[in-house]
Amino acid sequence: MSELLSQDEIDALFDALTTGEIDVKEIQEEEKKQAVKEYNFARPAKFSREHLRTLEIMCENYARLVSNYLSGYLRIGIPVQVISAEAMTFSEFNNSLSNPVVLAILDVKPLTGPMLLELSPNLCFAFMERILGGAGRGMEKIREFTAIESTILDKIVQKMVSLLREPWENVIEMRPRLNKIETNSQFINLIAPNEMVALVTFNIAFGGIEGLMNLCIPHIVIEPVMDKINTRFRFQSGNDSDEIRVDKNVEALLKRTNIPLRAVLGTTTMTVREFLQLEVDDVIMLDREINSYIDFYVGNVLKFKVSPGVYKNKSAVQIKEILRKEDD
Q: Cα–Cα distance between 163 and 72 in angstroms, integer?
């Protein structure tokens, strides 16, 4: 509700109109003028705040996956955190790169065009020193990578690139793949200089070393799925598929679980004296007839009745009966 004027304020307003201090026509003309919004054609606003916020949330998931991978691979805790997500032109990003640079060029099928993943060279040298048995202190002076170092780095980056699949699964079934690693930023001309990109910056802490990792996402690459890059769509999709995804993950883990299997020919009992007197060629009589099936255990659970035999010159059993319980 608008604020009510007092009688003194009303009288002052009429006096101003009478003396000409306030021009009614001028007020009306100003109200008719349309508000003009500035637009920078050199930096078109293709990424809204909602887009950047959603990309930041997706990359927080990616940071967790990268942290788990690096911590397990290098046998040391390596926290990875998202620092910022901002929009800029590709030329601004490219001009901020130093040489040598570790810049992975990614294919993100079915999307058309590349994404870029940039790693701090000092961090890369620290990772390789750790892998090769050192403490992982990095390099005081950055140099070019040797052939062996490039091979090791390629393996690490390939795994980090593959981890992009999960954070994007609610937007698109992405198939990320490492195309190549470029070490000279001057040769990177895959994207137009004035093309807008979203730059997500991560901080990686490795022992006493900290470095940055940047994920460069060109607008032209993700333009076909921009309508899905918002928090509302992401959380709705996530809620619908969370239960199915958990079931599939549990099923996949169970299928990879190793289970001990054992076939028991039979059992018997004897005294300690009899056990100590056993010698080669002695015969131990079991509690099972020769024509009866033997017990087959899965873990500690009796699941099958089987008959022994030979298959491809190896001992084997053939399932003759499946034992089912009410809770199976």
A: 14
CA distance 234 to 29: 46
Buried b vs exposed e over 290-303: b needs ≥16 C-beta within 10 Å? Answer: eeebbbbeeeeeeb
Name the residue with tokens 């993100």.
108
In the block, residue with structure tokens 């001028």: 26
Contact 108, 175 (CB under 8 A): yes
CA dihedral of residues 128, 129, 131, 132 (deg, nearest 10): 120
Please tell me whether residue 33 adopts helix, strand or coil conformation. Answer: coil
Coil, strand, or helix at residue 237? helix
Domain annotation for the chain: domains and CATH numbers: 49-239 (3.40.1550.10), 261-322 (2.30.330.10)
DSSP annotation of 103 reads: E
pTM for this prediction: 0.60
Residue 77's contacts (CB-CB under 8 Å, 6 or more residues apart) are: 71
Q: Which tens digits make up the pLDDT trace of 164-207? A: 999 998 889 999 999 999 888 776 778 888 899 999 999 999 88
Residue 126 tokens, joined: 């620290």
Q: Which residues contact 117 (CB under 8 A, 6 or more apart)?
A: 103, 104, 106, 157, 160, 161, 213, 214, 215, 216
| Amino acid identity at 208 | G
Name the phi and psi angles at 20, rounded to 5: 90, 10
Distance (Å, rounded) from C-alpha 126 to C-alpha 134?
9
Listed residue (310, 309, 312, 308) closest to 296, CA to CA: 308
Place of tokens 């809204």: 48
